[in-house]
Amino acid sequence: MSAIPVADDVLGPDVAVLGLDKVSMELGLSLNKVRQLLRDGHLLAVRRDGELLVPADFLLGGALVKGLAGLLTVLADAGFSRTEMLRWLYSEDESLPGTTPINALRTNHGTEVKRRAQAMAF
Asked: pLDDT (tens digit, 9 = 90+) per residue, 93-111?
């Protein structure tokens, strides 16, 4: 089994995080499936005090935020590291609805967020 890649913990202290067991319960998936989402790059995690944690903003209504996995793929294809992806998702951008890419995704503005991510690749 391959190691789970993690991002550096660049999250602000105000960003809520969930342990993998809680993510598993919220998504109705086994812990192994959640780990596979992390390995496949469909989800990001940080390590704090030895524990893998996922930003709570990545979940909505018992599912992953719509468009998150695809957006992470676009960012990876653009050469972003996991840490850079996490930093970008939480970067303030007043021109986006929701002020950050992750908040824009959560409010169904995924097309605009993905468009910006694709533009950064060029």
From this structure: 888 877 899 999 999 999 9
Q: pTM for this structure? A: 0.92
Class of domain 17-120: mainly alpha
CA-wise closest residue to 21 among 41, 58, 44, 51: 51
Q: Are 15 and 55 in contact (CB under 8 A)?
A: yes
Residue 100: closest CA among 61, 64, 80, 71: 71
Question: How many angstroms separate the CA atoms of 44 and 30, rounded?
Answer: 17
The helix or strand, by DSSP H or E, that contains position 54, with its residue range, turns out to be strand 51-55
Q: How far apart are CA 3 and CA 17, in angstroms?
A: 21
Q: How many CA atoms lie within 13 Å of 113's alpha carbon, on the beta-carbon side?
A: 32
* 46-97: pLDDT as tens digits: 999 999 999 999 999 999 999 999 999 999 999 999 999 999 999 998 888 7
Q: Is the dihedral of CA 103, 106, 107, 110 positive or negative?
A: positive
Which tokens belong to 63? 């599912």
Q: What H or E segment, with its residue span, contains residue 60? A: strand 59-60
